User: What shape does this take?
Amino acid sequence: MRSTSGMRALPDAFCNTKAELARAINDNKRGVIMDSKIKKYIEENKVCSDLIFRNWSEFVELLFECGGFVNEILWFEYVLIDKQKDSLGGGGYGDKENPEYMWAETMIYDKALGQKTLVEIKDHITSTIKSYAPHILVPCFFDINN
Assistant: This one.
């Protein structure tokens, strides 16, 4: 068990890949208990098989509200498909709502964020997005715990 800045103690087991997260959400075989609010939010709001959301701030706030935290972020760039050659990323997921756009996976990866507070995570995400402008970076929550 580990405690994060005054929050309740959390189990050491966490989901660190989308496959493990999917297993935890679907059948809980690994013993990771996904809060029902988070599970519902993910099922209703993720835009692809990874944890990418149009409103990342809303997801992070809910995650922390439920006693969770973010440990790792893999960054994607939201880009016009025909401009992908100028992107920081390559490959990724098409946007079903805007078919001319995609989320291209970048090599930008942040680790060891698990001790950060909600405010620190939101500040980190916002500053990373600003530092890569005019590219439109989007966080993918690669490793979460709740």
Notes: Confidence is low (pLDDT under 50) at residues 1-17, 23-31. DSSP finds four helices and four strands in the chain. The first strand starts at residue 69 and ends at 80.
